[in-house]
Amino acid sequence: QVRLVESGGGSVQAGGSLKLSCAISGSTWNYCLGWFRQAPGKEREGVATLWTPYGSPIYADSVKGRFTLSRDTGKNTLYLQMNSLKPDDTAMYYCAATSRTRDCRLDPTVYNYWGQGTQVTVSS
């Protein structure tokens, strides 16, 4: 069983940075691990994902060049470094995992393990 716990959200001004963490319990070898977000009134969308053990991150076009997905295998933690934040980045951010596929995609329906979310608010 995989358990995911997010942290690191908060309120920042536009142009600022935040680093989200996702503490993972359980083995996620050969999993897709990713970050998703959902703003009020909008559907959940993929932000970034990668395939363990050695996949390259895949990013949504809206965050390319600003967000960086990384993983610390020793701490079993997934990170999302968010720079140059914009008000449009305001959302609840969720960590997610799935072993259903190696074709890691930014499609939330593929993921079957989810954290509780951490709120990110960017003011203009």
Walk me through what this model shows:
The chain is mostly beta strands and about 120 residues long. It contains no helices and 11 strands. Strands 2, 4, 5, 6, 9, 10 and 11 form a 7-stranded mixed sheet that branches. The chain has a 4-stranded antiparallel sheet with strand order 1-3-8-7, with no helix packed on it. A hairpin with a 4-residue loop joins strand 7 and strand 8.
Quick summary:
The protein is mainly beta and 124 residues long. It has strands at 3-7, 10-13, 18-25, 32-38, 45-51, 58-59, 67-72, 77-82, 91-98, 113-114, 118-123.
Q: Give the proportion of residues in helices.
A: under 10%
What structural class do you assign from the helix and strand content? mainly beta
Helix and strand string, N-terminal first?
Answer: EEEEEEEEEEE
Q: Which regions are unreliable across 5 or more consecutive residues at pLDDT < 50?
A: none
State mean pLDDT (0 to 100 scale): 96
Helical element count? Answer: 0
Task: Report the portion of residues in β strands.
Answer: over 45%
Query: What's the N-to-C terminus distance?
Result: 40 Å
Shape label: globular
Number of strands: 11
Rg result: 13 Å
| Biggest sheet details | 7 strands, mixed
